[in-house]
Amino acid sequence: MSDLFDLIIPPNPPREVMADGAMLLRGAALPYETDILTAIQTIATRSPFRHMVTPGGYVMSVAMTNCGAAGWVTDRTGYRYDALDPESGQPWPVMPASFLDLAVSAATEAGYPDFMPDACLINRYEPGARLSLHQDKNERDFANPIVSVSLGLPATFQFGGLKRNDPVRKFALRHGDVAVWGGPSRLRYHGVPKLKDGEHGTVGRMRLNLTFRGAL
Ligand SMILES: O=C(O)CCC(=O)C(=O)O
């Protein structure tokens, strides 16, 4: 009988606790894969990926765009959320329904049932691109978690503590994985070291990451 159930009801994909308030939902984005990849192409025709500049003048190796009511931007004047894409002067593309569905269901599963994101930063890593350890702290209300979706080439996720020099744990992030961190983990330092070269069957020679935030 148990064999029959195994055939009819697929086992839940593994869930991993990264820290108090932080979970890794393996494969949670797979049912949304096609919708998300199609939507990213549409978003990028209106608000193309670009390499932004940090306040210190460093050109980021990760290419970024946004959708939603607000988009995360950086330039020589600082980091901020902006309702307009500074390159087009127009509002960022609307957040697609599939993005919202995934972000809300992942947050709910991780223990944040009230999360309603208004910003989605889309990161594109090509081989060699990296995001150094940082905190997400430009958002208005830290009661909202961060929901972070991985597609394409695998990466290592560095998940540290509340201080930059705290020990860092490493998690392998694969196509379809979703990491959620909030509550006592909301301001943990995190980052992604240099992406290794490779070719992903669906996404190609890159990794895409969607990071949902409650920004406004
Ligand atoms: O690419 C990732 O997995 C993390 C992205 C990230 O840390 C960020 O956008 O703040």
Textual characterization of the structure:
The protein has a seven-stranded antiparallel sheet with strand order 1-2-11-8-13-6-3, covered by helices on one side. A four-stranded antiparallel sheet has the order 7-12-9-10, with no helix packed on it. A two-stranded antiparallel sheet has the order 4-5. The chain has one domain (12-213): Jelly Rolls, CATH 2.60.120. The longest helix is centred in the first third of the chain and has 14 residues, at 33-46. Strand 1 and strand 2 form a beta hairpin. 16% of the residues lie in helices and 31% in strands. The protein is an alpha+beta fold and 216 residues long. The chain has helices spanning 2-8, 33-46, 97-109; strands at residues 15-19, 22-25, 63-68, 71-75, 78-82, 119-125, 131-134, 146-152, 155-159, 169-173, 178-181, 190-192, 207-213. The protein has three helices and 13 strands, in the order αββαβββαββββββββ. It starts with a helix and ends with a strand. It is globular. 2-oxoglutaric acid (AKG) binds at residues 121, 123, 131, 136, 148, 150, 157, 190, 192, 209, 211. The site of 2-oxoglutaric acid has 11 residues, from strand 6, strand 8, strand 12 and strand 13.
Q: Helical stretch count? A: 3
Helix content range: 10-25%
Radius of gyration, rounded?
17 Å
Determine the oligomeric state from the structure.
single chain
* Overall geometric form: globular
The CATH top-level class label:
Mainly Beta
Give the tally of β-strands.
13
**Remind me, CATH topology?**
Jelly Rolls
Which class do the helix and strand fractions yield?
A: alpha+beta
| Head-to-tail CA distance between termini | 51 Å
The H-level CATH homologous superfamily, spelled out, is Alpha-ketoglutarate-dependent dioxygenase AlkB-like
Largest sheet: 7 strands, antiparallel
CATH architecture: Sandwich
Strand content: 25-35%
Mean pLDDT: 95
Order of strands across the biggest sheet? Answer: 1-2-11-8-13-6-3
Low-confidence stretches: none
Which molecules other than protein and nucleic acid are bound? 2-oxoglutaric acid
Please write the string of helix (H) and strand (E) elements.
HEEHEEEHEEEEEEEE
User: How many individual domains?
Assistant: 1
